[in-house]
Structure formats: structure tokens, C-alpha cells
Amino acid sequence: MNTMLAYFNGKIIPLEEVKISPFDRGFQFGDGVYEVIRYYPPKLFQIDFYIERLKGSLEKMEIKVGSLEFLKPAIMELLTRNNLLDVPSIAYLQITRGVQYPRRHDYADELTPTILIYTSELPVKNEILTKGIKVGLEDDLRWLRCDIKSISLAANAAAKQHAKEKGFEETIFIRNGLITEGAHSNVCFVKDGKVVTPPLSNLILPGVTRRTVLLLCKELGIEVEEREIQSAELNRFDEVFMTATTAGVVPVIEIDGKVIGSGKPDKITRMLQEAYNKLVAG
Questions:
Q1: What's 185's DSSP letter?
Q2: Distance from CA of residue 95 to its chain's centroid?
Q3: pLDDT of 118 over the 60 cut
Q4: Parallel, antiparallel, or unpaired for β 133-139 and 170-175?
Q5: How do strand 194-197 and strand 224-226 relate by DSSP bridges?
Q6: What is the maximum span of the chain, computed from C-alpha positions, in angstroms?
């Protein structure tokens, strides 16, 4: 197997040579942000939207990086040198505030951010896209800045693990009786041909795939309503689907043991999947 390469603090080096200081604030505090960017041959899919969101996360966290012009060429070089140009893949990008010794909660202004990018193959998940998934429900116990794509993901990881243990593919969070989002996805509902989804706020990540799907709804003439959704409403919807960078538009056929609609991916979800796939292929 060929040695995989990574971008680390301005250099392309073997992945196994990447060394993170034990005093990096990302390691000690989860003080950093990240992005996962999809590559569908021959292009990085909607990378400008991801960079825009990354800039927003960095600003909200007050992590000073400077120009991000290096990102696109660095990712493409990694895909090329890691022999991934011909296969669906992802680029994982993480930026922490940097190294600070000794450990303390407040941070110095002059810290140099730690930047890591690596790439890996990630095939399209055709089975879940075709058959749909079963998801669970869980109280949303995360912090109040879920709009930041922070590397502090302990609650998300726990929710994903709980879902796995129960035989679910994903978890939908509920906070104070309201639906927020998935553990690593946004969620949309369909009623009488209308797509309904929670509005963006500090409790919801501004998903790039969510954004794309809502734009596709406009192009297809599908009505969209962004509003608060009560957990008690879940059994009233005709269709449910999740949106995520790694998977696209994923039908939900069951929530916490209750079948959604016909129990199969339905009309609006299929229309949006088809439109999304055309956009990916284009």
C-alpha cells in the first residue's frame, strides 16, 4: 500500500509523520474547527461554500489564520499524489488555535494555528440512498454554538454511538421539544409536497448540502417552509430525509421504531435525490 500524504502546517508529508503537540489547544480543549469536503471526479464539490463556512467558524472562534487561498491547491495536490483523482473521496481539514504551554484556559494572541488536511476514498453509499435509513431520537445536550463547525464533538459522537447500538443509522436531536438536526446531518420533512425544515440558528449547523437542497427546491418549484418543528409533529409528515456532505440526500423510512409514510423513499425525496445527483455529475 502506498504511503498516504497529508498537508501539515504548510508542508506535504507522509501521514504517519504528522505529529501533534500534547500542548495543542485542539488536543487539550477541542479549541478548533474543521470541514469535510466532498470530491466527485473530477472536481471538489461546491468547495467555495465550504470555505465560506470555514471562514465563518474561524471568525466566530476568533482563530486568526489569514488567507485560505492555499486550500484548493493543497487538497488537489493531496488527491493527485494519493491516487484519488478517479474515485469519490473526501478531504478532511482541521484548524486549531495552536500550541500553548503551559496549559491555561485563556489564550495568547500570537499563537500560530495548527493546520491539517488529509484525503481518503469514500464511495457513494448507494444502499442507504436507495432503501433509506432508520434513525433514533435523543435529547440535544450539546453546547449553544452548534452553528460553529467545532471539533468538540463528544456529544455528537456519543449520539452516533447510541444510534449504532440501537440499530439506527443516525440520530435526530430534540431540544426543549423542538427538532434541531442530526448528529452529523441536517433534517428535512415533507408534508403535502412542501419541504419543512428548522430555520438556521445558533443551534443548527448551516449545512452546505442543506443549502444546496433548498436551492434545488426553488428550481424544481417545491415549496419550502423554514420553521420550528415540534417533536410531537413527527408522525404527521409524509416523508423525511437527512442531508449531509458524505451521503447527500438520504431518505428516512423510520424514526424511533415508527414508520414514516409508506415506509419507503417517496416522491419529493426521490426528486431531490435525482436533482442533487445531476448537480454532482455536472
A1: S
A2: 16
A3: yes
A4: parallel
A5: parallel
A6: 58
Question: How many angstroms separate the CA atoms of 37 and 45, rounded?
Answer: 7
Write out pLDDT tens, residues 161-180: 999 999 999 999 999 999 99
Distance CA 50, CA 213 (A): 15
Q: Is the pLDDT of residue 1 over 60?
A: no
- The pLDDT tens digits for 249-281 are 999 999 999 999 999 999 999 999 999 999 999
Q: Which residue has the cell 409528515?
A: 237
The reported pLDDT for the residue numbered 2 is 79
Q: All domains of the chain, ordered by start, with CATH?
A: 5-121 (3.30.470.10), 126-281 (3.20.10.10)
Whole-prediction pTM value?
0.96
Show the 3-state SS of 101-138.
CCCCCCCCCCCCCEEEEEEEECCCCHHHHHHCEEEEEE
CA 89, CA 46: separation in Å to the nearest integer? 14
3-state secondary structure of 258: strand
What's the pLDDT tens digit per position in 130-145? 999 999 999 999 999 9
Burial of 162 (0-12, 13-18, 19+ CB in 10 A): middle
Report the alpha-carbon distance of residue 176 to residue 278 in Å, rounded. Answer: 38
Does residue 172 contact residue 179 with C-beta atoms inside 8 Å?
yes
Mean pLDDT of the chain: 97
List, by residue number, the catalytic residues: 149
Angle made by CA atoms 160, 150, 140, in degrees to the nearest 5:
45
* Mean pLDDT across 76-102: 98
